[in-house]
Amino acid sequence: MHDHHHDHRHTHAGEDTSRRLVLALLLTLAFAAVEAIAGLHAASLALIGDAGHMLTDSLALGIAAMAAVLARRAPTARHSYGFARSKTLAAFANALFMLLLIGLLLWQSIARLSDPRAVDADTVTLVAVIGLVINLVVAFMLSGHGHDLNTRAALLHVIGDLLGSIAALASGILIKLTGWMPIDALLAMLIAGLIAASTLNLLRTAMHTLMNGVPSSLSLPEVGRNLAGVAGVADIHDLHIWELDERHIALSAHVSVRDMGDWPGVLERLQARCAKAFGITHTTFQPEPAPARPLRFVPSPGAPNRKPPDGDDRASA
Question: What confidence tens digit (pLDDT) does each residue in 236-256 have?
Answer without folding.
Answer: 999 999 988 777 899 999 999
